[in-house]
Amino acid sequence: MNLLATGMQLAGIGLILTAADVFAVP
């Protein structure tokens, strides 16, 4: 697996979790 691809994947997961966290809090 490519290190860059892994970093982008982790960044995407972090972005999704952050967005979910923001939307979950009213």
Automatic annotation (TrEMBL):
Organism annotation: Haloterrigena salina JCM 13891
Origin organism lineage: Archaea, Methanobacteriati, Methanobacteriota, Stenosarchaea group, Halobacteria
Name of the protein in its database record: TrkA-N domain-containing protein
